[in-house]
Prior knowledge:
- The protein has helices at about 5-15, 235-240, 255-260, 415-435; strands at about 35-40, 70-75, 80-85, 105-110, 120, 130-135, 135-140, 155-160, 165, 175-180, 180-185, 200-210, 220, 230-235, 250, 270-275, 275-280, 290-295, 300-305, 310-325, 325-340, 340-375, 375-410.
- By secondary structure, it is mostly beta strands.
- Strands 4, 7, 8, 9, 12, 15 and 17 form a 7-stranded antiparallel sheet that branches.
Amino acid sequence: MVLTIPLLIILIVPIMITIKPVYDPQLDFNEYNTVYFYGSLVDPIGDDKGFGNLTYPTNEVFQPGVFDLVNFTIYGDSSYLYFEVTMRNIGDNPWNGPNGFSVQYIHIYMLTTNNSLSWDIETFGLNVSIWHGWNYALLIAPGWDNIAVPYGQCSALYDGNHNLLAVEDSDQLNVTTRNNSIVVMVSRSILVDNENIDKWVFVVAIAGYDGFQDMKVRPVVAGDPTEWKFGGGDQSAIEAGVQPLIVDLLAPTPNDQYDMLRSYDIVTGRYAFIGGTDLYGNFYPPGTLQQNVTIYTNATVTTTTTLTETTILTETKTTTVTIANTTITLTSTETETVTPATTTTTTLTTTTTLVSTLTSTTTLNNTLTKTVIQNNTVTETKTLTSNVTKTKEISYTTTETYKTTVKEIVVESTPLYAGIVLMVIGVAALVFTFLIKK
């Protein structure tokens, strides 16, 4: 019994003790906080070759290993999540980037378990597509100004609609370095579904940072590298605009990385498809992608309306004849349908141009890999099936044109023969009657 109590103290006390954070104290956080460890993923050393052939620019600032990702770790406290990206060599910060590094540009794309969040597959200038999509994009830059990348040079967080959620140097996002690691602090309040972060899928990509490029990504050229550009690119892919600009990508093996980054299509102009990894080490490479796309453009509807006006014309003629102090009034009425001298034809042409009508249905299928637990290799087969329907909003413009044509019509009036005949007969009868009386 005497031994049991100390043993219980030894087991229970460490659970109750709060842990002092191991990240850089420059970050604005409480000095003591409970830290939750969510997972750490290892990337092979020496695979900083992009799709297998990339070589570093020749300037001395691009030291060996500055684009070589070796580890990705996530931990957090009650208010923040911490994303730690470790490089083989972070470099000497030759241009004094405020965040402690100068040459790297790190992209972290996160797919959550919340299907109601905005979603996309395209990246911010990396020339690749993420086949399973993403809900959040964390872009980590050296931080020379206070404008979010890619428009400025400050680290930022975006949602799946590319809406800016946070920019660094705020209580929602901050960046610092520790040894060869870059640590990004993100407020839990802006990351929906963060309670399930261990089930999220992460794509971690390393590119070269170039503040003179529109998307801030350092270019790749074919053949030998230049002083400021990576070499070893595929000339055909560069000309087709599909050369991947990623130097290192979180993946189980170098070949997994190379295979994904080589999957572009220069004939159709399709980017390479890449996939991510969850914090349990499950890797999700590109699966079967089926896409049904319906596009409608330049739809024209023409309606022609012809208006014809008609008038009912009634004409009454009265004739008065006086014979021998006898007055006789003769009346004749003629009704005629008269077509007016003009016919107006109005043509209404409605032209509707659909700028973008895109409905795509994506079916994702994938079979998954192996994990290592305490030196025992456990082979686990797992199937990820996801049906995602993404509909882009239809925007359109409508133009209505009214065209009026007036056509002259010559109408010949028909004499009122019947009325005249009746009057003549009447007059003749009066004359005949008068003569008889005489």
